[in-house]
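Hello forum,

I keep getting stuck at the same step: I have a sequence, I want structure tokens, and every attempt I make locally crashes halfway through. Rather than fight my setup again tonight, could one of you with a working pipeline run this one for me? It's a single chain of 529 residues.
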Amino acid sequence: MTSWNVEHKTLLNDVGHSSDESGCGEQYQARLSADSKGGKHKAPSAIRGDSQWTLHHAVVFVLTFVSFMLVHAARKAFSNVKSTLQREWTAFGNCRPENSSMFCHVEPGELWRKDHVLFESSADAELFMGSLDTIFMIFYGAGLFLSGFLGDRLPLVWVLSVGMCTSAVATFLFGCVTEWSGYEQRWFYASLWAINGLAQSACWPSIVAIMANWFGKKGRGFVFGLWSANASSGNVLGALLVSAVLDFGYDTAFLVLSAVLLAGSIVNLFCLSEKPCESRGRFPAPVEVSELRNIERNGYSSPSNRPMPASQSIDIEQPVGFIEAWRIPGVLVYSLAYACLKLVTYSLFFWLPFYLTDSLHWSRLLSSKLSTLFDVGAIVGGTVGGIVSDWLGYRSPVFSGMLLVAVPVLFIYRQFGTTVVANSILMFAIGFWIGGPANLLSAAITIDIGENEKLKGNTKALATVAGIIDGTGSVGAAIGQYLVSLIETQSGWQNVIYFLMSMLFMATMCTSRLFLKECLELRRKHCRW
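Reply #2:
Ran it on my machine without issues. Output:
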């Protein structure tokens, strides 16, 4: 009977006290009190959580995947219309009649706009776009710290839905209302993009915590390696959508993406469950019906009425404090590594299409399509990295090893990616070796840290840890976006590539101690010499 007590202490800690929120406690009590053929009463699959995957798990996987995919697609729209916005904000942009290498078509409206422009030169417009990226990432990074803190204290689905809805409104105002009304002011663009950064920051910690509630350690590297492709898939979707509607005006891309993002927030609000049957997905082992009858004969009509010793009193999980979360092993190291790595991935995310247009003089349509290969490589790299890390039983050797390979691959891309075929192959390669470890760190490694044994099973740290790691990464990315535009205008794209290579090396150095430790453990485990 002691094992029954221990098992049910865990269950009631996770399910019984949440009955006022979802009714899961009552559902468990009713099912547990019922007789079942075969002498055992088994929990319904929707409550068992990690014991087996069900249709409910698939729905959660798809909804959370699509949610962040739409968030990233809306974010990608801005990077893919930069050359168009540069033209709009400077009347002619890079188009000059004397430049025979570029097709120059001037609309009558642009003749009027040349005396009513936002910027005097293309370089000024480019710096402002870099500043917008920086503003977005600063507010996105700051918001992640707050969103992770709130995510462990408020309903995760509400935090996610409100963030998506607010982002949709900000995107619509930024890309559509300003164009339709002709109200183009720098402070207004900057304010909207700051709000957008704050709104989107609410999404990632929430969906990471929701996924961690539904999926346990079994195959985590593969599951979350595949799932973390949501950002890269969103980049591909955003790039393809912009390419499809850009001829109708850049405002059309913002309109479509904001509408879809708003629809996604509504669907999540009504269809997404925070945890299996609004519990944390853990259910005790099957209970003998005869044991239940013995309990009732002794005066305990239901498990919730059975007295427990003081040593087994139920302790409701308390959210982990912000400072305490920083002390969890791995948080500081991987946060610093992600600051360097996310600087690189977001520099490529924001500037690749512009680089291909500005440096190689390829068309906007071709540049937009080619840039998607980076995200395709990231999807494959994240999935392969997750599978290999599951097989090894360690994450750091895979993470650091891929980044070490990425440094020379990025150099080769700059030197030899001057043709469409070579650029396509190398674009996929840098996506695999750079985007793969980024996806692995943002999901599987983050959840591993959030479930550290030091927390003793407390799941109220997941959103906070996800917010800290991603928030620190976003701060690094914010600084990087302005540095990229500054370095490019001062000394060209080649030095930008060298800068990104140095940041990849710094990311590996941040995790070097953990990397060496886990490599030695692997050697002792698998080698006899």
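Residues 64 and 207 are 6 Å apart (CA to CA). If your local run keeps crashing, start a new thread with the error log.
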